[in-house]
Amino acid sequence: MTNSPVNHVGMTVAIDDMPPLIWHAELGDKLLDLWTGTNHRGVQLNDLRQAVERWINSYDQRCWLRQLTPYASRDQEDRLLRVIARMDGTPFPSTARLTGRWMRGRLPNAADFTRGIPFVHKKVRQSVERRKEKTKTSLETAYCAETVAIAYEEMGLLETEKHYNWFDPGKFWSGDTLPLTETYQLGDEIAVHL
Which InterPro entries did the record assign (predicted)? Predict the structure, then answer.
């Protein structure tokens, strides 16, 4: 369903002198969620090294990193921590729910038709922002790309009228276009080897 060589996305959390962590949503419950101190499926904060070792050794997958430039500010890190506090433990959706939600994300929204009409587009964008704000507090399940998109947007890294279910892991791959705000960019993939 995506043209990218990517089937999962997570976000590195590297704050101060903490070991690198990964913020993501996954089906597995073998890794300790460092936010809650429990093992569970869904949205979780894991030790990045353990996650990479598991994907490479247990799942026979390849892993890549992409560097955000410029680095996140202290305020953005604080916003990310608030997202983690709110979303950690959110369950992963069932396959049917994930597929349906992803398919709805592919449908055009009003903003797709109002670009180029500034007054109307501004009103549509305000409406989208209100809907996103409401969804933020009522999210019952989340998949990996939604989890990262929500964190990116709340950190001020994304600029889009698209809803979170528009994102899939391939959107974060360098072969696609991620709607980052003007001042930010993600570098090319860096392969991770053990």
Answer: Papain-like_cys_pep_sf
Residue 111, pLDDT score? 65
Q: What are phi and psi of 65, to 5 degrees?
A: -120, 150
Strands 11-13 and 63-65: unpaired
In a domain, 53, yes or no: yes
In a domain, 80, yes or no: yes
What pTM was estimated for this model as a whole? 0.84
In tens, the pLDDT along 169-179 reads 999 998 888 99
Residue type, 10: G
DSSP state letter for 54? I
Identify the DSSP state of 176.
S
pLDDT of residue 1: 39
**73 CB-near residues (< 8 Å, 6+ apart):** none
| 3 part of a folded domain | no
4 within domain boundaries: no
For residue 117, give the 3-state DSSP assignment.
coil
Dist CA 180 CA 185 (whole Å): 7
Tens-digit pLDDT profile for residues 135-178: 655 678 999 999 999 999 999 999 888 888 899 999 999 888 89
Residue 127 lies in domain:
11-192
